[in-house]
Amino acid sequence: ALIGVFSSDHAVADPAAFLQAWRAAERAADAGYIALFGMQPTGPATGFGYIEAGAPLASLELPGDPVRQVVRFVEKPGLEQAREFLEHGNYYWNGGMFVFRAGRFLSILERHQPALFAALPALAQTSGVASAELYRELPEISIDYGVLEHADNVAVVPVDMGWSDLGSW
Q: What global pTM score does this model have?
């Protein structure tokens, strides 16, 4: 299955740009990558994590539709470093949007987060809401730290779609 992870508290002003990025991310996921949407920064934000983009993945690229290798993740930099990222031009905000094949994600999870992977059958057997005890037993780790920073074949799709996490209301 192809999985897309999108937070419900985000806004997208340009649906056409979102769909173009989705198609690029889908191609990357089909090729075995975990694809992230890299949001075009509009300023030197210190409240977002950043994705450093490397070389374009030529096998996945269409004109005007780049997919790039992820070099590294930087968690919420200081103001000076955020300004430097903007000057470099190859850094994008990590909006927490991912596209991947379920089997690929599960294999990475099994290798790098075995306790979480081991809990999946119990989570799948719940009818509706899992018990609080089951959740308390799970490791407290984000997808970025727990999976993406350890995975091979992580790609970023740069996109300027008028994104907002709506967090500054």
A: 0.88
